């Protein structure tokens, strides 16, 4: 298995071929210099974050799926319900929920088939599309919000102390800020 701390040889991982250390060592890093390898504590923290965030997403998804909606569908409905007038440009929603525009388009199409939202041309731009929450969609999101908040509380909020929760929020905001500005810088450089 390949470790962030140090490359170790393995032939497969969940059915996928893993590169040997020599091949990995020959691969360039973003700035083509040797990375600073993670120490044992950093490696443990990284793996705990990675596993914990995936387990949390699976738990939240499972709780919503029991009620016929996926986590991305819920997130889109939720953000739309908080938008002014229950309407927002699809591109704005995609940026806000950090999903590709094509994925948001597919999610919106599924929600539209259920009658929970409709897509209309943007009034100020013939190329843009606005997603609008329907009355039925508003009723659905009110019911789903109760389910989702209970799930978030059970799988995250109640698991952590208040201090841990606030520290997690601050840490993830710093990560978000760093990666949002980094992404903007990379886009500007092109």
Please tell me about this protein's structure.
The protein is built from seven helices and five strands. The protein has helices at 21-26, 40-65, 71-82, 90-96, 101-113, 135-155, 162-189; strands at residues 12-13, 16-17, 87-89, 117-121, 129-133. The protein starts with 11 loop residues before the first strand and ends with a helix. It has a domain at 41-159: Arc Repressor Mutant, subunit A, CATH 1.10.10.10. A hairpin with a 2-residue loop joins β1 and β2. The strands form two sheets. Strands 3-5-4 form a three-stranded antiparallel β-sheet. α2 crosses α6, α3 crosses α5 (101-113) and α3 (71-82) crosses α6. The protein has 190 residues and is mainly alpha-helical.
Keywords, please?
190 residues; mainly alpha; Arc Repressor Mutant, subunit A; three-stranded antiparallel sheet; 7 helices; disordered C terminus
Secondary-structure blueprint:
Elements (H helix, E strand, L loop, with lengths): L11 E2 L2 E2 L3 H6 L13 H26 L5 H12 L4 E3 H7 L4 H13 L3 E5 L7 E5 L1 H21 L6 H28 L1
Antiparallel strand pairs: 1-2, 3-5, 4-5
Helix pairs in contact: 2-6, 3-5, 3-6, 4-5
